[in-house]
Description:
This protein is mostly helical.
Amino acid sequence: xxxxxxxxxxxxxxxxxxxxxxxxxxxxxxxxxxxxxxxxxxxxxxxxxxxxxxxxxxxxxxxxxxxxxxxxxxxxxxxxxxxxxxxxxxxxxxxxxxxxxxxxxxxxxxxxxxxxxxxxxxxxxxxxxxxxxxxxxxxxxxxxxxxxxxxxxxxxxxxxxxxxxxxxxxxxxxxxxxxxxxxxxxxxxxxxxxxxxxxxxxxxxxxxxxxxxxxxxxxxxxxxxxxxxxxxxxxxxxxxxxxxxxxxxxxxxxxxxxxxxxxxxxxxxxxxxxxxxxxxxxxxxxxxxxxxxxxxxxxxxxxxxxxxxxxxxxxxxxxxxxxxxxxxxxxxxxxxxxxxxxxxxxxxxxxxxxxxxxxxxxxxxxxxxxxxxxxxxxxxxxxxxxxxxxx
Length: 391
């Protein structure tokens, strides 16, 4: 039993290291596992996966063949090994078919979803690749599988293909003149800054969620020791109707300074749900959904309760991103399956029931308004060309 425990420990260490982009550590863990159980196909598959990330393709071939020898009648490890061999041979469609079969039989393998994302990108299906990457990240508790697969060749855009065709079909008499004029110019300072900014943002998939949490915590600390600031920023509908419209926005960052559970529960919810929605929708769409939902909930409270008591909190915005997650599940239900939707409906019902049971201290109008606006915004912001595929 001790050897079995050790081999499982090494397998889990290898999986976690590979998901976090530490391929060398993964290879070491699998190598230790091979010393304990030289006939274990999962160990040899792990060696193939780690060496694929390290670029040792000869080792990948040998490890995959060893897996197939150990599973001559087939099995999940043998199938993934064959998909890796097809990947190295650039038979992407065949590898994708194999991975789809594996996922249909066992949808809980994070590496299979990461490999599927890579194969989908190789075949130009970037949107579905993002779905697969998000699923891999969720199953591996945030793993991004950086550099786990060979770099893909750059695909030419339609404009680039037209430019190439025009250049190849140009007359010989015009070629010298065309070559004497630069066909491109180096990016200017602003363009370089935009490129650097986009690259930096892409390296931190949950950056905006963390930023929102930090802002809320800072504002909470400021208002805890400055009651005047709290009074100036809180949503108080009679003053809003007199022209102090900023309160609709600023109250989204306020929390009860006498109740630390208020901000703790809200930030915990934002941490778990916000990161996932930010990955699925992209940073700017996610931020737009967040603020539209927060404002929508506050406006609904203003309209339906113009003389209501003061209100504060990020709950409306958080309900909005939770609603966005539900819309994403519904529009992609064939790819995701009914289980995710059932879980979402369960948590939605639980939150609404607890909200209504909380009495007058809970602003349910802001919650419901944020939820509805978040769902509507998510539906409008989701790429239209991909909706019909899953509806």
